Every structure is written in C-alpha cells, then in structure tokens.
User: What shape does this take?
Amino acid sequence: MNKLSINGEYLKSLGYPEGKSIGIALKVIEQNYCELEKADLMSILTKLIQQPENFLDDEILGSIAQVLIERPNEEATINLKEVGKSYSIFGLENIDQGAINQMEVAMKLPVTVAGALMPDAHKGYGLPIGGVLATKNAIIPYGVGVDIGCRMALSIYDIPENHFLENEEKYKRELIAWTKFGSGAGWQGKYRAEHGILDRPEFNMTPFVKNLHDKAVHQLGTSGGGNHFVEFGIIEFENDAVIPVDGIGINIKKGKYLALLTHSGSRGFGATIAGHYTKLAKEVCKLPKEAANLAYLDMGSAEGQEYWIAMNLAGDYASACHEVIHERLTNAIGGQVLVKVENHHNFAWKEIWNEEEVIVHRKGATPSSKDVMGIIPGSMTAPGFLVRGKGEVNSINSASHGAGRKMSRTQAIKEVTQVELRKVLRDNGVTLIGAGLDEAPMAYKNIETVMASQKELVEIVAKFTPKLVRMADDGSRED
Assistant: This one.
C-alpha cells in the first residue's frame, strides 16, 4: 500500500479531531503500518476512534488512544470557582511550574475540599503526579490515574548480604526466569498464574468489565513497562525495628538483609478501565478546557459506583500481580520472608476529613497516616526507603511515592547517552537488565533532597540499595 494514501483529511473523515491526534496517528501509521492493506488499516483506525479506551495498553496504538481520551469537551457546562482553595506544597523549590499550575486548577473544582502537593511532584494528566486531592461525593478517574492501584511491594529475607554478593548470577538467572515485562506481555501455558482474584464476582458486574477478564488472566504476575521494575537489593536497618503487619509487630534486628522490591500496577486491565470511565466522565461532566482531564463522576450515580467497584477490583488485581511475582521468586531463591510491606498509589480512598467523608485521590502519592508503613524508591541506582507515616494533616496523610522526574521521557532519551548510563550503573554497583534511556537515574530528582522535604510526613526506618534491577527491555510503557 502507498503510505501516502492515508493523510490528515482521510483521518478527519473517520472522526479524528484536528490537531495532535492526527499528527501522532500519521507518524504511527508511517512507522508501523505502511505495508498493511488499506481496508485493514481503516478497520483498525475506525475501532480506535470509536473506543480509544480499549487501546490504551496497545504497544503501537496506545499513544494515539491517550490523545483521543484527553480531548477536551467542546462546550463547558460546569464552571470552576474563581478562587481555588488553598493547599500545602512540600519541597516547592524542586517542583516544576506545570505541576503547580495543574494543582491550582484542581483546587478550583466545585467538588474540591482539600489538596496537597508532594515533593516528587511533576506535570501529569489532569491532576499532577504527586498531587493529593480530597473531593466531596465525587471520583475523578484521571485523578486516580491510568495505572490504577500501582504499588510498591517489599519482601525482606533472612538472607545476608554476603550470600547475595557471592551468588549474584543465580539471583540474576531467577529474576529473568520469573518476571515478564513490556506492554501487553503475559504468561503462556503452564506458566500462567493462578490466583483467587480471577474468580471475583466483580468481573461480571458489566459486560465491559467482563470482557477484560481474559486480559487479566493473561497478564497476571507481569510488570508492564515504563518505570516499573523488579529488583533485588540490600536493605539496612541501623537500629532494631518493629514492623506492624496485620496488627502484629514483627521484630527486625539491626543489620543488612537481602530484599526484593517491586513496582507495577494493574496492567492493561486497569488502563482500559481508566480510559473507559474517563470517557464517560467527560460526557457527563463538561469542564473548561484547562480542567477537562479532571472530569468527575458523582458517587451517587450508576457510573460513579461502577467506576468505584472497578477501581477497587483493579487495585486488588495489582496487588495479586505483586503477590505472584514475590511468591515465585521467593520459591526460586529458597528464602524465608521475615516481613513483607506493601503500599499503593494511583488510587482513591474514602476517608474522614474535618469530620466529613471525602474521597482522597493520591495520584503518585503514598498513604502516610500515623504508623502506616510505606516504601519510597529512588531510581535504579539511588536508594529507596522503608518509612513509617506521621499522619501529617497538611499533607492529607500522604507522602511522595518516589523521587519524581526532573526530565521528561523525551528529554532523557535526547540528553542521556548509553555511555553515561553504563558509567552510573558501574559506579553504583548495579546490574541492569532492560530499561530505556528514559529511565536513566539522571532523569529523576535527588531522592535525598525529596526525603529532606518530607521529614514532617514520614520517619525513615530502613534504607534499600538496589543491586540487580530488571525493567522492560525497550522502555515501553502503558501507563
């Protein structure tokens, strides 16, 4: 097929809006579909414009779907408040203006009750990454984020540091064998994981969610792309510690231990839910252009209740993915888990704020109510931290979910070289499997600076140092 036979006018005839979506679509077609028959390509493009939410986790078409989902409403029917509510900012000096601008728009929503911006904050879609927003009787799908229930999970083993250092090749072999990365990646045949999450009745709540069951089965126990990782490292407790787990205090003696740290979310299942309900929200909640991606659903509506149930199912699915990964690797290395800690972000919780129930959205923010444990990672070479929350009211019981980006993915790819990446890995004694330059350590803020900006939010309990890191081979992402 002549690749020039598909042009902007043709895409507009299919319903593609003028602007960014057409430019991206033409580029994707040129790079991936120039040999495809025109009828087949037309079928793909038609399905994409009709239901972009079904393509958010597609390795090739996801970038087009994202832009289509983000299309602003043509005519706003809900006005923002002239003056937004005040909110707290932690680590202001290291937060880009784009994130602040987005937060200020969010504080003008008629449903907003309170907000806060974490020190790892940077610009996102609608609500900034690192943004915390409490709303009254309303849920914002993009305030939760595309990767619903993305989380950290940490298993601390009874294995000393020396055993890992002396047997690193074995750990590397098992890490490769029992993890799977990349957009759309899943386990096949006898390697498919089994878990009770797949039998949950919520999968039958609507035909839309039911149709995602096969995708959930296929991707269970995998990690996706982008900044998701599975890594072995050394965690150091400078003092004896008591870690609360299910109401029981687990004693950990001062010392260094091998630990497994994972970061990933609800995969294509969660991404498709996010796209579907964002589209629905935009149909019923027509906000001005600058706030279009903050479209919300009333919690008293059928759509709001559907999304709430689907969001919680996706969050539990994300947890199940981590459980599968940790169980498989624990069995493979033969370790005894002393304690496991897990926390999530990209989620919404019902909480009490000033004696009223609100919906707290934490988009890239860690829950840090008093004595709640959490994990805040740095980068593939920077340390991460096991923390205990202090329950700071001004942060809405939240803390950062990581170091936060200081370079966009595009900027990092342009500015960081493979030589520079190899040097920083070597200098820090880190073995890297996979990852693109967009995830280079230089693309992230200094985690020590971020932690210094939130001393009033969390207490550091232990320090985790990455040693063996696996990420998606090509840096592909779906979230």
User: Anything to note?
Assistant: Residues 475-479 have pLDDT under 50 and may be disordered. The longest strand covers residues 458-470.
